[in-house]
Amino acid sequence: MFASDNYSGICPTAWLAMETANQQFVNSYGDDKWTAKACDALRDFFETDCQVFFVFNGTAANSLALAALCRSYHSVICHEMAHIETDECGAGEFFSNGTKILLVPGESGKINPVEVTKTVQRRSDIHYPKPKVLSITQATELGTLYSPDELTQIGDLARNHSMHLHMDGARFANALAGLDVSPKELTWQAGVDVLTFGGTKNGMAVGEAVVFFNRELATEFDYRCKQAGQLASKMRYLSAPWVGMLESGALLQNAIHANHCAQLLAKELLSVPTIKLIHPVQSNAVFVQLPQSLVDALQDNGWYFYTFIGSGHARFMCSWQTSINDIKTFGEELRKLAQTGK
Ligand SMILES: *Cc1c(COP(=O)(O)O)cnc(C)c1O
Hints:
With 342 residues, the chain is α/β, with parallel strands linked by helices. The protein is 42% helix and 15% strand. Helix 12 packs across helix 13. It is globular. Pyridoxal-5'-phosphate (PLP) binds next to helix 3. The site of pyridoxal-5'-phosphate has 11 residues, from helix 3.
């Protein structure tokens, strides 16, 4: 249950929204009232006239967005642990016909601005793929958050180097919940040009929104989606959940709950002296170092979590479906296993 937030099911609000949209015949390919409403709901949410597209998953959202911002001879700068680098099977490079991804290091999953500048300025000749996009992840792959100030600094950095700013927001709702600021402060006001906004990990069945704050960059994006096999004919089932989740506030509530669960889970884990926290818990992920014997014992007892994300530490994820009771039970079993292991 702690392996990933996409192990969770569909939350009741998203389910109800799909059921509500499941009436009679409706126009296909996004020409329907649910999709129109979802776009408007996102415009209200971000308090700006953004352009919105719905695709099936995060890999498509990210790689099509990057392809829209780049030509094949450009490059995208991102953190070395970014999902677009480590978990998308080269889709970004594929859909942009060869755009190169350039990696920069940084503490706890956040890019180091000095390293970005170095990477941009390393070369300016024709033999080097021209940096065109800075891509950041919020919340990061390591569960940490860029503060509004850090984002503003990154926005300026991108602009000063004539790069577009892309944000991978597979867990954007968790970032919002963690920082308690308005959606616009974390996006267009900080200079984000395009956000890939995750619905799936928050509690929807399927689907991510690609939100262009810079509308010019969205030119012909619908063709990209279609060509990539990402234009849903029964679009209402991708879009209606956004209406339900935004109008009811469930999107933020789910994230608040998941983040709270991560705090509780961290407490349980840290009650065992041999377990060390690796990154600050700022969203719905807990990264710890724990003895291999304990990893094995927990997994033998049916507690699933990943040990291959980031620097090889154990990652525990919480979601809308994580229950406080589960966390208590986990803590009790953990302490028992830790004791018998000695
Ligand atoms: C889960 C995730 C995605 C999306 O992955 P898909 O499996 O393609 O939906 C994108 N970025 C990050 C940081 C993620 O954690």
